[in-house]
Automatic annotation (TrEMBL), chains A, B:
Transmembrane residue ranges: none
CDD domains in UniProt: ThiL
Residues at which Mg(2+) 2 binds: 66, 97
Residues the record lists as binding ATP: 144-145, 170, 243
PurM-like N-terminal domain mapped to chain residues: 48-161
A GO term for molecular function: thiamine-phosphate kinase activity
Name listed for the protein in its UniProt record: Thiamine-monophosphate kinase
Binding positions (Mg(2+) 5): 244
Reaction it catalyzes: thiamine phosphate + ATP = thiamine diphosphate + ADP
Binding site residues for Mg(2+) 1: 65-66, 145
Function according to Swiss-Prot or TrEMBL: Catalyzes the ATP-dependent phosphorylation of thiamine-monophosphate (TMP) to form thiamine-pyrophosphate (TPP), the active form of vitamin B1.
Taxonomy of the source species: Bacteria, Bacillati, Actinomycetota, Actinomycetes, Kitasatosporales
Length: 367, 367
C-alpha cells in the first residue's frame, strides 16, 4: 500500500479551503419551525465575531454544551470509529440536549482543536462529520473555534427555540404519569462493553451484529421530531435524553420531579444486539439495556389520559414510543416482572468516573 | 511549609458541593437590557439538559465560542497565572465577542475538563474565576459541561441579545468613516513577549510594571458598555474586538468591509508598560502595541458626523475612545506619521500558529 502523502496546511488555509465549502450560503436561512420565525442573518460564512439570528416573535431559547472524549475514547483508539464518526457524534450529542427540551435546534457552534500531526484530510473528515451530523439533525453548523492544541479536542454548543414556556424540564413528572421511552437503549454501552473484550470470548459476534453495535456510535440520531411533538403539544410532563443510560435517566427524572418510578420489566424494549452482548458476558439483557450508555433516546412522562392522542400524533409522523412503567409516590426507582417480583432498577447507572459496565458481570449491579 | 492535603472528590460531589454555591438562585433572573425583555427561566440551578431563557419580544441573538489554551499557555506554565485567572479570562474572552457585536451578554456556558490530579481546591478556583468573570461582565454562568479528561480543557460559549437588526458586523465600514479604538492594545502580547525572556535582559522591569503587564491577563475587561452604546444607537458602522491584536483587527475589518485604512501613528494610544517592553526588546513601541495580542478593546468605525454625539454618550457613561485614523478606498492598511511618511501598518499581525512576536526583534515585521 502506498502511504497517502500527508498535507498539513496552516489554519487560515484550513478555514478557507477545508471548512469553507461546508459553510457557504448559510446566512439568510430560515431555521424556525412550529410558527417560530427565526432567521440566521449571519452564519459562519459571514466570518464575524459571532453568528447572528433574528428572532421575530416571543419564544423560549434553550442552550447546552457537551464535550466529547474523542481520542482517549476506547472505540476511537481501537480504530473502530473514524474522525468523521467522532465529528458526527459531537453534533448529534449536542442537538440531542435540544431535542430533550422539546425545542427545534437552530444551530451548533463547535470547537475543534488538533495537534500538528493531524493532516488536512483527517481534519476535514472531522469537520465533514460535524457538518453531516448537523444536516441530518436539520440544523446548521454556524462556526465556533478551530486551532491547534497538543491533542484533538472536540466540544460544541447547541441552541434551539420553542414556544414561550413550552420547554420540557426534568421536573414535571407526577405520580400516575406513564413512563415512556422512544426506543431501546444500551446499544452504545454494549459496544463499549463488547469490543475491548472481544478476544476474550470463545466466539465473537457476527460482522452484522458488530456493525449494528457500532452503528449507534457512528450514526446516532437525535430525537428532534419526537421532542418537538412532546413539547409543542405539551404532551410530556418531563423529558430527558438517555445519554447517561436509561437507569440513570429514570433516576434523574425521579429526583428532579420528586416522584418514584415502577418499570414493568417485560415492557422495556431490548435491542437484539444488546441481548447478544449480554448473553456473551453472562449478564441480564435488561440490565445491560438500562446501564450506562450514550444513546440519544428520549425518556419522558405522560399523563395517562393523553396516551392515545400522543401515540396517534407520533404515528402520523411515522414515529412510535414504548410505555415502560409509571410514576409513583414512593421516591424509589424499581422494576416489577410478570411474576410480580419487585426489585431496584437493574443495571449500572452512569456515575461519572465510577461506573463500569463490568460491574454487571461481577454481580455488583447495585450501588 | 506543610503541604496542603489535597482532596479529590468525584464529579457528582464536585457538581453539588464545589460548583453548587456559585449557581444557586439563577433561575428567574432578568438578564435583558435596552428594553429587551429576557428572563433566565432555568439556569444551571435547574440542573436540566439545557438552560432556558424566555425572550418576550423580537430581538437579535448573537452566539460565539472560544477555546482557551490554559495549560500549555506559557504564562500559566510559568506560574504567573492561577486557575482562577484562567477561568476569569475564559469568561471574559467569550463575553468580549458579544460586546463586539454591540449586544448584551445574557449568559455563558463553559466546558471544564480536568485530569484526576487536579484537586478540589484547584478545580474550584477555576470555577470561581469563571463565575467572577461572568459577574464582572454583568452576566451569568448558566452551566455547561464538567468532567474528567487527561488534561485541563477550557472552552466556553457566550450568547447575547440586541435590538432586531442592530448587531455590529465587521463589514459595514465605508471610506471616510473614522477608525476608533476604546483603549491601548498590546498589553497581553507584551506580557507574552517579556516574561519568557525576562532573564535575558540585563535589568528587568519593576514589580509594578510587571504586575501591570500581567493584569491584562488576570483581569481583562470585556467592553460590554462600550459595545452597547455603539450598537444600540447605531453609531458604529463596523466593530470587532482586538483579541488578535490591533493590526490584525484593522486588516480583518478592512477585508470584511472592502475598504482601506490609514492610521495616524501619533494618535494610536500606547500603554506605558508596552512601551517599556518595546524599549527592552529594542523594537518600536507602536509596532508592539499593534502586534498579536489578546486584548479585548473594541476597534470600530464611525461616520465622522456622529463623532461628537458618540463621544458625548461615552462620556456620560464615564467612557472614552480614541480616533486613530480613517477608512479609505485604497484596499490597503497603512499608517502615516507626523512627517507625512506612509508605510504598511507596523507590527506582526496574528496569523494562527505563524505569528511570533519575536519577529519584531528580528526586523521581519512585514509579512
Amino acid at each position: 500500500m502506498t502511504p497517502r502523502k500527508a498535507t498539513y496546511s496552516d489554519e487560515p488555509t484550513r478555514v478557507q479551503q477545508l471548512i469553507g465549502e461546508f459553510l457557504t450560503g448559510q446566512s439568510g436561512t430560515s431555521v424556525g419551525a412550529d410558527g417560530l420565525d427565526v432567521r440566521l442573518t449571519a452564519g459562519a460564512d459571514a466570518k464575524d465575531d459571532c453568528a447572528v439570528y433574528d428572532l421575530s416573535s416571543p419564544m423560549s431559547l434553550v442552550v447546552g454544551s457537551d464535550y466529547i472524549r474523542g481520542p482517549k475514547f476506547v472505540l476511537y483508539e481501537m480504530g473502530l470509529l473514524s474522525g468523521f464518526d467522532i465529528g458526527y457524534y459531537l453534533a448529534v450529542a449536542n442537538v440531542s440536549d435540544i431535542a430533550a427540551m422539546g425545542a427545534t435546534p437552530i444551530g451548533v457552534l463547535s470547537v475543534v482543536r488538533y495537534p500538528h500531526e493531524v493532516d488536512d484530510a483527517e481534519f476535514q473528515e472531522v469537520i465533514a462529520g460535524i457538518h453531516q451530523g448537523c444536516t441530518d439533525c436539520g440544523t446548521l453548523n454556524v462556526g465556533g473555534d478551530i486551532g491547534n492544541a497538543e491533542r484533538i479536542i472536540l466540544s460544541a454548543t447547541a441552541f434551539g427555540v420553542c414556544k414561550p414556556g413550552s420547554a420540557l424540564m426534568r421536573s414535571g413528572a407526577r405520580p400516575g404519569d406513564l413512563l415512556c421511552v422512544t426506543g431501546p437503549c444500551g446499544l452504545l454501552g454494549a459496544a463499549v462493553a463488547y469490543f475491548p473484550r472481544r478476544d476474550t470470548f470463545e466466539k465473537g459476534l457476527s460482522d452484522e451484529v458488530e456493525r449494528r453495535l457500532l452503528d449507534g456510535w457512528k450514526r446516532p440520531r437525535a430525537r428532534v421530531a419526537e421532542g418537538r411533538i412532546l413539547g409543542t403539544k405539551a404532551y410530556a410532563t418531563a423529558c430527558q435524553d438517555t445519554s447517561d443510560g436509561l437507569k440513570a435517566t429514570i433516576e434523574q427524572i425521579m429526583h428532579a420531579s420528586d416522584v418514584g418510578f415502577r418499570v414493568v420489566e417485560e415492557d422495556v424494549p431490548v435491542e437484539p444486539a444488546v441481548g447478544m452482548v449480554a448473553d456473551l458476558m453472562g449478564v441480564e439483557s435488561l440490565a445491560l439495556s438500562m446501564s450506562a450508555s450514550s444513546d440519544f433516546q428520549l425518556a419522558f412522562t405522560l399523563e395517562a389520559g393523553k396516551l392515545e392522542k400522543c401515540r396517534a400524533e407520533f404515528a402520523l409522523a411515522g414515529l412510535d414510543f414504548h410505555v415502560i412503567g409509571e410514576a409513583t409516590d414512593t421516591g424509589r426507582a424499581e422494576s416489577v416482572n410478570h411474576l410480580g417480583a419487585v426489585r431496584p432498577l437493574p443495571g449500572v447507572a452512569w456515575k461519572h468516573q465510577k461506573s463500569d459496565i463490568s460491574l454487571l458481570a461481577t454481580g455488583r449491579v447495585e450501588e
